[in-house]
Structures are given as C-alpha cells and as structure tokens.
Design goal:
By secondary structure, this protein is α/β, with parallel strands linked by helices. Helix content is 36%, strand content 20%. The strands form four sheets. A nine-stranded mixed beta sheet has the order 9-10-8-7-6-5-4-1-11, sandwiched between helices. Strands 12-13-14 form a three-stranded antiparallel beta sheet, with no helix packed on it. The two termini are 19 Å apart.
Length: 401
C-alpha cells in the first residue's frame, strides 16, 4: 500500500486532449478558454509550444498507450492543414499513437473550407465534431454564432465529400424565446443531416459569460423539460442510443475519448488552459492538472503547468461518481477499486441509500442510476460528498507535487 492509501493493480486507459484556444468571435454563452482571433494566428509558435508541452509531460506516462485524441477549442478548424499536420506528426512521434486511434477535431460551420477539410482527413483526423447548435437562423443570431443554417448544411456536405464517416453535431435547446415546436423542428432538421453522433444539451447561463451578465429570455422550466422529453423520444425513434446524459450515438459510433473521460480514465491535457487527470502507480496518487490559460503566456513560458491538485482519498467517491453516473449504463462496479486505487466500501452506505430511494440500480456488478436517478443526478451526487458519505475520517493529508 502506498503512503497515499491508494494502490493500483493497473492504470486506467489514457486519452490525449489538445486545446487550440482561438475562435472568430466569443459566443455570449461560452465559458471555455477561448480567445477571439483579432490578428493572424501564431500557428507555428503555438504548435511549437504544444509539442514542447507534450514532450515535457510524456515522462509522466512512459510506457502507456494513448487510446484517443481530442483536439478542442476555441475553433481548431481555424488552423491551417499545414499547422495541424505538423502538430499530428509531432504527436505521433512523441506518443507512438497506434494506427486507427480515434482522433476527433472540433469544427465551426462558419470556418469550413473544402480543401482544408480534405487535408484534415488526409493527415489522420478521423472524427469531426461540428458546432451546429441550431438550424434556425434567428436562434443562431441570438446565440452570437458566426454561421447560418446554410453554412451548417454545407459543412456536413464538405465533411462527407472529404471522407469523414464519423461526425458529431452539437445541438442546443432551451434557446432564447424558443418554443417547443421550434425545438422539435430544429432537432428534426439536425437528424436529417444524418450525423453518426449527437451532443444534445440545454442552454445554461454560465458564470463569467455575457449571457450571465445580460440574461436573455429563456423558455419556462416546464417548456425546457418538455423539450428534453421530446428530444429523448425523437432521437430514440431515429435510432440514436442515449449513452450519456447529453450524448446520443448510432450503433458503434460512441465517442471513445469521452467514454474514457466519463469512465474515470486518465487523460493528458496539452495546450493553453487544458485540463488533465493522471494516475500514478508508484506514489498511489491521482492528480488533476491544468496548464497556463492565456495563449501568449502559455507560449512564452518554459514551465506551462499552472495548477496541480492531488485528489484526496475522501473526495474519491464524488470524483468517480460525478463522471461514471453520467453514463446511462453506468460502469462495472469493479472499476471503482481499479481506477481509484481504493475500495468502494466507505461509500457503500451512500450507494445503498440511493438504491433504497430508487435512484441507483440494485445490481452489485454495476454502478448506475435508475431513470429517475438520472433525472435527479445532482441530488444523487450530493450523497457522495465527503460530509455525506462518511469518508472524512479516511483523509490522509497530501501535498501536491
């Protein structure tokens, strides 16, 4: 047993997240680390910094195989094919990325270029996530998006012609002044695009965004609930399987990167403001890490780590459950011990209370919510907070390295 109280028989799967932080215009609802590109992008300098960042972190994961890559933003599709080719060549050289690994890149319909998309596919990017959000031009304008419905249709057409056979589309509902009929039409129009995967989520007013400071008129709570229920029915009828709270996929088209994330897998975060989670067998620690947020400071730095926090044993229950219970099927119960390095026993009382209240499934082989528990997930998770689960006496003081 390590000094931390954790012991890993084997480390969890490992993903790679790469953050490209620029966009054409900051959306009023967006709380991601994104910055408006007011001048020519420093592509060469940023790619250099990202590869230096990756090279510095590789010793932390020596001998481990990466199961997925996700290039997010910002708007990664602002980058030229040449810059992304150099980035991916460096990633492959440093990681030994296995052939056929899922490599996802986010794209904005307002930044689509047919030749560029073909080049992206040629350099090995095999999955796109297109931020459509809506196919209603009035709604898109209210959301501050730079594209319209025509651009979204063209983006899908260009992506298909470029050879992409695995495409996610982001769709939002509960938009300013949106009616149930409008949300229903929006979903039907997006399904008609025939994506393999849909990320379908409600607009929320996040702190430190323009919408938080100047809130738009949103549909009533009951209307938003009806929109969600209608979406679930419609997507199920269209052959989409709901496998996570807001993720829906055709058969065999789940996002491997995000499944690993929700399954409490590890991921190395590279790029300005990127977050990561790593497990260490030698010290028995799980560390959450984040990089310097501002792109220029990130590029200029020699040490790009901004914050690092060791997950306390007492926080293990909430850290694991807040990810795993987002999955509709939940996770195998043995993953808790294997991926946290501690037994589930201290949280068994909280689990049993959830089972008794009809919020979690009564299945010793699986950790999963019931349908009611999924609808009340925040209430379920509250029961795994340290003060609620009775794990506080297990705290072992740790000093982040």
């Amino acid at each position: 047993m390590t000094d931390s109280g954790r012991q890993f028989r084997e480390l969890p799967p490992l993903g790679l997240y790469i953050h490209l932080p620029w966009c054409v215009r900051k959306c009023p609802y967006c709380d991601f680390n994104s910055h408006e590109a007011r001048e020519e992008l420093p592509e060469a300098a940023y790619v250099n910094a990202v590869l230096e960042d990756l090279a510095a972190d590789i010793p932390l994961v020596w001998g481990r195989t990466f199961v997925s890559v996700f290039i997010g933003g910002g708007t990664p599709s602002l980058f030229s094919a040449e810059a992304l080719d150099r980035l991916m060549s460096g990633v492959r050289a440093l990681t030994g990325l296995p052939p056929g690994t899922e490599i996802t890149m986010e794209a904005n319909p307002g930044t689509v270029d047919a030749a560029r998309f073909a080049d992206y596919r040629a350099i090995g990017i095999n999955r796109l996530s297109i931020g459509v959000q809506s196919l209603n031009d009035s709604a898109l304008k209210a959301l501050g998006r730079i594209h319209d419905a025509r651009d979204a249709h063209m983006a899908m057409d260009v992506a298909r012609k470029a050879g992409f056979e695995n495409i996610n589309v982001d769709l939002m509902y509960g938009l300013p002044d949106q009616t149930l009929a409008e949300a229903r039409k929006d979903l039907g129009d997006v399904i008609a695009l025939q994506p393999e995967h849909l990320s379908c989520y409600e607009l929320t007013l996040e702190p430190n965004t323009r919408f938080a400071a100047f809130p738009p008129s949103l549909p009533h709570d009951d209307t938003r609930f009806d929109m969600q229920a209608d979406h679930l029915r419609t997507l199920g009828a269209a052959g989409f399987e709901r496998y996570e709270i807001s993720a829906f996929a055709q058969s065999g088209k789940r996002c491997e990167h995000n499944e690993n994330y929700w399954g409490f897998g590890d991921y190395l975060g590279i790029g300005a403001g990127a977050h990561g989670k790593l497990s260490f067998a030698d010290t028995g620690e799980i560390r959450r890490r984040s990089k310097i947020r501002h792109p220029k400071r990130y590029m200029d730095a020699t040490d790009r780590l901004d914050q690092e926090r060791v997950i306390a044993v007492a926080d293990t229950g909430i850290e694991f459950m807040m990810n795993a219970l987002r999955l509709v099927e939940g996770v195998p119960a043995h993953w808790f011990d294997e991926r946290t390095g501690v037994p589930v026993f201290p949280w068994q009382k909280a689990i049993q209370h959830c089972i008794d209240d009809g919020l979690m499934q009564d299945d010793p082989a699986t950790l999963a919510t019931t349908e009611r528990g999924m609808d009340l997930l925040n209430s379920v998770l509250e029961r795994f907070m340290p003060s609620a689960s009775g794990t506080r006496p297990m705290v072992i003081p740790l000093v982040p390295a």
